[in-house]
Amino acid sequence: MDDIVVDENIDITGVVCPMTLVKAKVALEELNDGQILSVRLNDGEPVRNVPRSIKYEGHEILKLVDNGDGTYNMIVRKTG
């Protein structure tokens, strides 16, 4: 995705809320500060809740891209 180097990718499109947030948080916990996580998630509740919760926890949402197929890619930088 442009010039962003992604360290880890997860796909949570088959996961139901609130497990979508849990899976994203666990993936972030496994990264070091400053590393980049790409999360593929569904439209609707996941794309409304997961980015907001991740940002609330202090992480930086770099991009949220609509894939045009009912899914989105969220690019997150883990911050301390």
Question: What does it look like?
Answer:
This protein has 80 residues and is of the alpha+beta class. The chain has a single domain, classed as TusA-like domain (Translation Initiation Factor IF3, 2-Layer Sandwich), CATH 3.30.110. The protein contains 2 helices and 4 strands, in the order βαβαββ. It has a 4-stranded mixed sheet with strand order 1-2-4-3, covered by helices on one side. The longest helix has 12 residues.
Broad structural category: alpha+beta
Question: What is the top-level CATH class?
Answer: Alpha Beta
Work out the helicity level: 25-40%
Quote the beta fraction: 25-35%
Largest sheet: 4 strands, mixed
User: How many domains in all?
Assistant: 1
CATH architecture: 2-Layer Sandwich
CATH superfamily descriptor: TusA-like domain
Count every helix, treating DSSP H or I runs of 4 or more residues as helices: 2
In whole angstroms, the N-to-C terminal distance is 23 Å
Q: Report the order of strands and helices.
A: EHEHEE
Arrangement of strands in the largest sheet: 1-2-4-3
Number-wise, the strands total: 4
The mean pLDDT is 95
CATH topological fold name? Translation Initiation Factor IF3
Outline the fold blueprint.
Layout: E1 8-11, H1 19-29, E2 36-42, H2 45-56, E3 60-66, E4 71-77
Parallel strand pairs: 1-2
Antiparallel strand pairs: 2-4, 3-4
In short:
It contains 2 helices and 4 strands.
Key attributes of the depicted protein:
Translation Initiation Factor IF3, 2 helices, alpha+beta, 80 residues, four-stranded mixed β-sheet
